[in-house]
Amino acid sequence: MTVSALRTPQRHRCTVVGCEGDETRFEVGRGQRVLHEMIRRNVRAVPVGCRGGGCGVCRVRVLDGEYLTLRMSAKHISADDAARGIVLACRTIPVTDLVIELAPAGHDAPSTPSPPTRPTPPPDTST
Amino acid sequence: MALTGVLRPGYIQIRVLDMSEAIVHYRDRLGLTEVSTGSDGRVYLKGWDEFDRHSVILREADEAGMDVMGFKVLDDATLNELTAKLEAYNVVVDHVEAGEQPGVGRRVGFTIPSGHRMELFAQMEKSDDGPQVVNPNVWQSEPRGMAVTRFDHALLYGPAIDEVTDLFCDVLGFRVAERADLGGAHAVWLTCSNKAHDIAFVPNPDPGSFHHAAFYLENVNDVVHAGDVMAYHDIPIDVGPTRHGITRGHTIYFFDPCGNRNEVFAGGYTYYPDNPTREWTTEQLGKGIFYYERELNDAFLSVYT
């Protein structure tokens, strides 16, 4: 192990800014994913869904800080979203301290069914 | 032979974000047998109690969810009959050549009003690792992990579920085992067999959405063992172990590494075609879905791929 590795912080602070300016903070161990560490520390700040990048429920915007992401479902995070710092907390690994806010998409099921809101994707069985 | 027409769910093709993680999950944790990898990268798997070559297909993609669910029909003549019935019902069908999936005969595909692709097929090669037929052991290869026996059913989310129900019943010969009133729209549990359900639909505005793929276990003790496997390997559990009021099956909902919901499912009643449809009212739906908790969790309606 090099001296610089010894200086790398073992954990980063993640601050979730609520819609009324309230802040929730928790620590994220080095190399760990934001949502998984939030769950492990019994913090409720970001909605928890599938925890695997598929459902989009934990969609957030990074306001400050650097991070890496694992692959996220393109249905929920477009290339444009990613360029604007919108990520899924379950696929985001902080590299520095992070400040995030919730960025839910219009994906959640409404209480009463309504007509389709997006076109049916073409069948894809052969690629 | 009373069970004719559409026999059962034959395969499901699931999209995954990371194939190597998905293989560990479906092969080593659920305990499916890895059969082969296609030249296009799709990975084929099967349960230990299934005769056919494969029942689960994984495809790496940029989003999670389900590509297609395929139903096995009795024989080629049945496939022709059902194709004609679909066309007479003004369903646009397409034809997939034999061999597009290894070991599988020709397939007939169509998109249902909820936005999901369905396929019918009559022929699939038998697995050389399926149940034995001469002096059979319980299993040919010792099961792993949760030791799921087979792909059992899927629950899908999408619009126009009443139209979907009519198509499945009027054209494909399914019956409505259970129905829930969601305040005007209906969720349905449909069967083509003696099982309490072979496919289920819940209304949702998002077409083509995937709630879960379920894998069968023999009894509730095996469901509890599956829960032990999930806990040991830190697999996220959504709900359970618990029981469904609908179908009466014992269950755990959990997630694969890219967020597709899986279920281990045991039991459920035996359905016969003369059984009346069991009905659930809106205010009792929680008990229908999660019998002991008697209420839906937040994730049931909002978390899907």
Explain what this protein looks like in three dimensions.
- Chain A is 13% helix and 27% strand.
- Chain A contains three helices and seven strands.
- Mean pLDDT of chain A is 85; it is low at 107-122.
- In chain A, the strands form two sheets. Chain A has a five-stranded mixed beta sheet. A two-stranded antiparallel ribbon of chain A has the order 4-6.
- In chain A, a hairpin with a 5-residue loop joins strand 1 (11-17) and strand 2 (23-29).
- Chain A has a single domain, classed as Ubiquitin-like (UB roll) (Roll), CATH 3.10.20.
- Chain A is an alpha+beta fold.
- By secondary structure, chain B is an alpha/beta fold.
- The longest helix of chain B is centred in the N-terminal third of the chain and has 13 residues, at 76-88.
- In chain B, the strands form two sheets. A nine-stranded mixed beta sheet of chain B has the order 14-15-16-13-9-12-11-10-17. An eight-stranded mixed beta sheet of chain B has the order 2-3-4-1-5-8-7-6, with helices on one face.
- In chain B, a hairpin with a 4-residue loop joins strand 10 and strand 11.
- Chain B has six helices and 17 strands.
- Chain B has two domains: 6-121, 2,3-Dihydroxybiphenyl 1,2-Dioxygenase, domain 1 (Roll); 150-302, 2,3-Dihydroxybiphenyl 1,2-Dioxygenase, domain 1, CATH 3.10.180.
- The termini of chain B are far apart.
- Chain B is globular, with a radius of gyration of 18 Å.
- Chains A and B meet through loops of A and strand 5 and helix 6 of B.
